[in-house]
Amino acid sequence: MTDLHVHSQRESNLLSMPVEIRRAIYAYIIHGQTHAFLSQGRLQLSVCLQPSLGDDRHDGRERKPTAEGSPDTTWARRLRSSWGAHWGCEEAAYAENLHEHGHNHIYNLLFVCKKMFLDVCDFVSERTAINIADLDTLDVLLQTPFELSSDLNRPWNFWDCTRPAIRKLRIALRLPLAFYEALQEDENLVSVTNHNTSVELNKWARLWPAVCQLPQLRSLHIWLDHSNIPSWSFVNERVALRQVIAAIMARMQACSKERTTPRMDITFNLPKLHPRFARPDTHFFEESPPRPFYIERRIRQRFHCEELANGNLDVAYKADFPVMHEYPELCAENDKELQGVVGTALREVDMTLEQVEDFERMLWEEGTNVYELITEMPGFQDEDAAYMRRP
Ligand SMILES: [Zn+2]
To answer: Which of 20, 52, 60, 186 is surrounded by the fewest CB atoms within 10 Å?
Structure first.
């Protein structure tokens, strides 16, 4: 969009200020992160509440409604959110959508005038991180826009103006475990017979090169999980990330040929590895993959939504590694109780969560079934054992 079509707005105090000052003002109004999502086939914007992406206190319990008498179905629905850790952002987005953007400052600013429209597009693409939580939104966002300069009649479109200048993209995908299995089958040249899965695989294959063609992209954050109860470590991470890494490497090679090597930060946020199921040939251990990739590991959701046979939703508990995570808390509680009874500290062996992880990893690696140990039920079959025994 050229300045020829934009009124100078010299009579406006705000719009006559230097651009740096205008941006400093917009920073008070526009959050550092936004969400893009599809509603009725159109891309929409909403705020990101910037939740914790996964620590010991954010394992699903924080999604339980605090209001007395709230049904567990609300909790279960939140646990099922395809937006994962951004479940609260999803609720905010759809509530905001009902108000026809009345509460979204970005939309309010866009409608002031063309000059402010361009200011806001620049600000959002250059200064904020755009979060996307599903493949369809990403696919629509990355579709090649019309050539703006040759189509003066095309209405002013926020995404057409913002897309080419996006700097920070945060993608959070919580896909069915079956999708990751299909990626593996595809890798093994087993033809995928399910039509819907096949469509999703094609989308997956085309969108990573498209992400990497965003010319101004400098920061890419990818959060992945699957939406089923068994351990994350049943996903072959090397297959899941192969196309992403290949697309990024291709971009870096192209840049080095053109002798333009802009710095790009790439982070994968993945659940902690389960020592019983993860293997170096299928998973990324500490020393891999090579720079510029960086892997953050997080505690995976421990509370899950379970759909009962009658269609009702319920909440189920199943911890991924570490399953002994409650041990530090139990020690602290026991210490308190003992102090009250005998007036002295008869301390058990205090362990931090990191020490518990090391201890539990050692147990798994030496062949102990830690589930059996903590449930004190020999032969206990959890969802991981059931997944392993699937036909
Ligand atoms: Zn969010």
So the answer is: 20
Residue boundaries of the structural domains of the chain: 3-307, 322-388
Residue type, 175: L
Distance in Å, CA 94 to ligand 1 centroid: 13
Query: Ligand 1: distance of its center to the CA of 87 in Å?
Result: 7
Q: Ligand 1 centre from 132 Cα, in Å?
A: 9
Name the burial class of residue 278, with classes exposed (0-12), middle (13-18) and buried (19+) by CB atoms within 10 angstroms of its CB.
buried
Distance from the alpha carbon of residue 89 to the mean position of ligand 1, in angstroms: 5
pLDDT in tens, the chain (391 residues): 555 577 788 788 888 889 899 999 999 988 889 999 998 888 888 889 999 887 778 999 999 998 877 778 999 999 999 999 999 999 988 886 666 555 577 888 888 888 889 999 999 999 999 999 999 999 999 986 644 444 555 567 888 889 999 999 999 999 999 999 999 988 877 777 778 888 999 999 999 999 999 999 999 999 999 999 999 999 999 999 999 999 999 998 888 877 776 778 999 999 999 999 999 999 998 766 667 789 999 999 999 999 999 999 999 999 999 998 887 777 766 666 656 555 544 455 678 888 999 999 999 999 988 888 887 776 667 889 889 888 7
Distance 48 CA to ligand 1 centre (A): 4
Tally Cβ neighbours within 10 Å of residue 302. Answer: 18
Distance 41 CA to ligand 1 centre (A): 20
- Cα 242 to the chain's mean position, in Å? 18
Q: Ligand 1 is a single-atom ion; what residues have CB below 5 A from it?
A: 48, 86, 89
The region, left, alpha or beta by phi > 0 then psi within -120 to 50, assigned to residue 194 is beta
